[in-house]
Specification:
alpha+beta; Jelly Rolls; four-stranded antiparallel sheet; 26% helix; globular; binds 2-oxoglutaric acid
Amino acid sequence: MAHVLNESQVTEYRREGYTIVRGLFNAEEVDLLRRSAKEDRALDQHAFGRADGEGGTVRLSLWNHPGEGIYGMFARCRRMVDSAEKLLEDEVYHYHSKMIMKDAKVGGAWTWHQDYGYWYQNGVIWPNLVSVSIAVDPATKENGCMQVIPRSHDIGRIEHVLSGDQAGADMERVNAILERLPLVYCEMEPGDAMFFHSNLLHRSDMNRSDNPRWSMICCYNAKSNDPYKDAHHPRYTPLNKVDDDMIVKVGVKRFADDESNVAWLEDANDTSARVLKDKAATK
Ligand SMILES: O=C(O)CCC(=O)C(=O)O
């Protein structure tokens, strides 16, 4: 089984802005994650929608602290955290995690954006953050898998404007970039994981297929990049790593888990996109 990212994966991440690790999690681990997520009433109750500006809405749940349950074991396991530390060349902390719940037929789109387009608004000075998208269901072109523009992370932060409820990158610029760089559909099997740079341009289509496309995304910030001001995601908070085998250990007793300490983030508290609207209003 794959463990920490190897040198060629690190090189690919630095050059392309992302790297996909096939089978980072085995079938037992990702089956536990999928079962837990789909049967998890708390996840469902804390889910909120973000209009995509194209007539659809994406549904997601978002939490700030990784906790002791199965989501926490994924976010805190060495495979993830040691890899993130290798990429960011620093101790990392958990910035937040989310479950993207792109249900069959109705799951909305994500507009072109850089994650740092959001996080810049939160007092994060460097784009030295990494997100890891773990496929919970198969992710295909048909069910709205992630699309990326390789090497776009080298461009630096692009201006973002409000698009529906999402922060969208300036499309005049994105279209000019698409004339110069390719677009790649990142199809993944359950258990595959994509590590991507916070300035990588990415989007995904609405899910018009009969198959759900859920994925869990864990985001890490470098300790040296502690935000200069408080926002709705945490400032540096030490992350307690766990051994990789904790995923299965905790997963099998998942129904006894207490996830009350994860700090769910309700939509009303998420201001990184909304601040763009406020800025537009005060111009
Ligand atoms: O998983 C997706 O479809 C995209 C999610 C995304 O872009 C994000 O959470 O920033």
